[in-house]
Amino acid sequence: MFGLGVVVLAAVVPDVVAGTSGGALTAPGAGYAFLDTRTEAGRTVPVRWNPCEPIQYEVNMGGAPLDAVDEVQRATSRVTGATGIDFTFDGTTRRALVQTAHDHFYSDGVTGTYDPVLIAWIPHRAMVRFTNEQDVLAFAHPELGESTRSDQWVSGWVVVDSGGRFEDSGRYSLELVLMHELGHIVGLAHVKAPDELMFSGQDAGDARPYQMDDWGPGDLRGLEQVGADQGCMDHVDVAP
Hints:
19% of the residues lie in helices and 25% in strands. By secondary structure, it is α/β, with parallel strands linked by helices.
């Protein structure tokens, strides 16, 4: 049993974001950071999804709470509200993390069609094995495309500890934990500011996170920079 006051809320597994095109970009004092960047017309900009098409996702209900789909849809709705990017629920699936943990993100490699984002629950012992931590409630990985799509996110996964103790509301509720992870999916990195939902105590010293029930001001600024206002990108084929 662990106390939520000291839980590491979430983690992006470090080795799955290594080697991406531009490296993390932090805006000092702005309360947001990006997982990866690229160069566009001489400017450094965040890697992002094509906001003119919905982010498709599937939910594996193995080990999940009965209301998991409702929780996910509430979280995706709040990401949409901050980014303008829609999400489409492609239904439930038996596809598991182990099937995508080794970069198997194609549903059809011949045609270059990607899998939807996978949202799944795994047992606590598996969570510890993946993260090398005892108190991680969830983690996420957005996947870069290949070839001409190598400058945008095209797939990924969110994984939740089925044995995690979630609060009924606030930062450690399932809804806000999912929002945090979906923040990673759309391209946000952890920050040290305790008044942001993307806060992580891993690099924040003695800082204690504020209790929250929504995005922080820096979160919103970062989400706007990966959102619909930034314009369309290349079409990506996605299919279950």
